[in-house]
Design goal:
binds S-adenosylmethionine; 358 residues; two-stranded parallel sheet; binds iron/sulfur cluster; eight-stranded mixed beta sheet
């Protein structure tokens, strides 16, 4: 939800607490927007995303990145690497080095369900991130919470939590969150909102709803339900991993962006075993850029492999033959002509940017 919409909603509801909370997010949102619209990328990542585990308690059929090992196979069972959890010493090393390198945010989520990580360790990481000046955030299916765990998370100082809930009745929810119980996640969201209030916490909560063919008719009702619970609601567009699940309403279609991609400059993505990859779409290590067990974050970021990858991505329109395989089928950045931009114009812009990119 945009800043203005959220602000207006709170004013309309005469919710002073909400107005203040929204205003406090302004500096961070401004920074993010500036990054988004800049024609040049930042030269240091602002965020590091770590895969505490790539195991999952659910089996969402559309999931690009989930690895599931409890139920029968669906598409994401094809993940071509081992399942495991991150070693705590590695987590501590990442937090320390990320802070030293000037990274601002640590996302405790990549593939899999982060709340499957040992609870005590999860809480320790939130505290440690805070002590090092990092903002810890998490995306979760929200099913593994209970009031005691939720309170511990709030008290530890989590900055933001996004609940992934793609339906507002059991029959629709379970089509997408296969193996999940809507009632359970509903109660967990409601309890979390209550606990945040009780603890006077600034934890930002979101109900994220991916718009799909089978649930788009529930979006308005889900938004009303979220309002009743008191949790901000956002519709996420679907990265079209399964064509049949693309929603009918074009308003909910993902907006593609013309190449070249700058996302590789904004965040680093770390598998549970310490391997660094450039992007959330690198599911099975097509572009491994180093391992944090062996080198520091800074060494990897400034290392040969990363520099080479950035060059190939930056020159994708000029030397398409060198473009990484990973990027050729990107679900976000597409050829300029696909979004109505003349390819020659896009190429000229790309040429002009080259001297400023590193
Ligand atoms: C891979 S999940 C991992 C975290 C957690 N298990 C969850 O479901 O929230 C990370 C995020 O990607 C979202 N996601 C997964 N597949 C997606 C797709 N095809 N399009 C858009 N978002 C997707 C999930 O809803 C979640 O918000
Ligand atoms: S809960 Fe998250 S990681 Fe697990 S299958 Fe669903 S989207 Fe993927």
């Amino acid at each position: 939800m945009s800043f203005i919409t959220e602000f207006n909603q709170h004013v309309h509801d005469r919710n002073l607490e909400g107005v203040v909370k929204t205003l406090k997010t302004l500096p961070e949102r401004t920074r993010t927007k500036l990054n988004e619209y800049s024609t040049l990328p930042p030269f240091k990542p602002t965020r590091i995303c770590i895969e505490l585990t790539n195991r999952c308690n659910l089996n969402c059929p559309f999931c690009l990145v989930g690895q599931q090992d409890l139920q029968e196979s669906v598409a994401h069972d094809d993940l071509n690497r081992d399942t495991g959890g991150m070693d705590m010493d590695l987590c501590r090393k990442i937090i320390k080095e990320a802070s030293q390198f000037g990274i601002q945010e640590i996302m405790l989520t990549f593939q899999g369900e982060p709340l499957m990580f040992k609870r005590q360790n999860f809480i320790e990481l939130i505290k440690l991130a805070r002590q090092h000046g990092l903002q810890p955030i998490v995306f979760t299916n929200g099913l593994l919470l209970d009031p005691a765990f939720s309170r511990a998370i709030v008290k530890a100082g989590l900055h933001a939590m996004r609940f992934s809930v793609d339906g507002m009745t059991q029959d629709v929810y379970e089509l997408n969150r296969v193996g999940g119980t809507f009632e359970k996640v509903y109660h967990n969201m409601r309890d979390m909102v209550q606990i945040v209030k009780e603890e006077g916490s600034s934890l930002q909560l979101w109900w994220q709803f991916i718009a799909l063919r089978n649930n788009e008719h529930q979006i308005d009702e889900a938004r009303d339900m979220a309002k009743k619970i008191g949790i901000p609601f956002i519709v996420k567009t679907f990265a079209e991993s399964i064509p049949e699940l693309v929603p009918k309403n074009p308003e909910y279609h993902r907006k593609h962006i013309s190449k070249t991609c700058h996302d590789i400059y904004r965040a680093m993505w770390v598998y549970w075993n310490g391997d660094v990859v450039p992007c959330c779409y690198d599911l099975d290590g097509k572009e491994r850029l180093g391992n944090i067990n062996e080198n520091t974050i800074e060494e990897i970021w400034n290392g040969k492999k990363y520099k080479n990858l950035r060059k190939r991505v930056n020159e994708a329109l000029i030397h398409p033959e060198n473009e990484p395989e990973l990027c050729k089928g990107c679900l976000k950045y597409v050829a300029p002509e696909k979004v109505g931009i003349h390819p020659e114009l896009a190429k000229i812009k790309s040429y002009l940017q080259q001297p400023f990119l590193k």
